[in-house]
Amino acid sequence: MAPAEAIPPANTTTTTPFTGAAASGAFTTTPTAIDPYTYQVGFGNHFASEALTGALPIGYNTPQRYAYNLISEQLNVFTPTNGNVEFTLQDLGLKTITGHGNSMAKEGLAVYIYLANKLIEKRAFCNNNGDILILPQEGRLDIQTEFGKLMVLPGELVVIQAGIKFSVRMPDGAGRGYIQEVFRAHYELPKLGPVGSNGMAQPRDFKTPVASFKVDQSEWTVVVKLVGKLFTYNQGHTPFNVVAWHGNYTPYNDPSIYCQVACNTFRPPYYHRNVCTEIMGMVCGKWALSGSLEPGGLTYEPSYMPHGEGQELWKQATSVELVPQRVGEGSMAFMMHISAHVSLTKYALKRCANLQKMQVVGRIEPPLYSWEKISCAVGRHDYYNVKPQNGE
Ligand SMILES: [Fe+2]
């Protein structure tokens, strides 16, 4: 980063000519009032970070002696030997909505909704099942990981890989949101094409924490999730004691930038059938096109089941004057495209769902899609009606 004095502040003029500047460090983000942490930027990078100068050994991983009398540990992606990530049911209402496969075989995924209220002190979580992607819908998540700290706002997402210990504070009080857990693969950034298929998240939009540690020799409990079960063990120090690290297996968050540019285009999503199952939710605002999807809710479209907008909207969209317009302002939705067939849980169908047999009236003629569309809005949950129950 260039020395600050070489950069004139924005919105000011200066008569001082630039005389040149040299970078003195890698780019990191600037803390803000709602996110006090600093991040490195990029996706899939090999990063390096040290909270104490000289803590990271240069050139090799296992010198005989480390600076500050530190010891080293490896977290291997292919054969994770330790790691804990998860919320416990005491501080998090976690309900399974849908999924497929099983974590024992490392095949498949699961989708959850969560309600969280408070941090249980001296407790960390580690999910050995797989990587988790968290989408807060209400309430920021102040996450301490072994690799550093992340503040995740509603409208952003965070990915915490399997085997990484973390704990979550709720700086805004109670919160809720969505979690997707994948048992096998790691998340990748899709090829974007000329403007991207639906969005244009760029690698540099993703933020990775910098090393941050504490000295804490008190008793801690680590809750580990493995093959769908929770285990605990105690240790005599905080798990967040990593002074320096390097590698590419690090948690990250993303502001979910969304932008689409088009002309001479039928703008609403046309009627379609997907090989993928669609799980869609609202973070905020209103889904402008149709239906009953509210913030905190989810919709489910099974593979190859036809769905889209009705005839009235089709008429409107095909006759409206095409002028530049902002759409979806104040709202944010997300879509999980899942290549496998997934089934809804008993909880989603019986205790949570607002299962709707969508009327086929108003479909575009000719009736290409003559069978009844089944859609449901699940997961609209509040702080009072979600009671975690095992076995659902
Ligand atoms: Fe769709």
UniProtKB/TrEMBL annotation:
Biological pathway: Amino-acid degradation; L-phenylalanine degradation; acetoacetate and fumarate from L-phenylalanine: step 4/6
Gene Ontology molecular functions: homogentisate 1,2-dioxygenase activity; metal ion binding
Domain Homogentisate 1,2-dioxygenase N-terminal: 38-76, 93-253
Binding site for homogentisate: 287, 307
GO CC annotation: cytoplasm
Similarity section: Belongs to the homogentisate dioxygenase family.
Annotated protein name in UniProt: homogentisate 1,2-dioxygenase
Organism from which the protein derives: Lasiosphaeria hispida
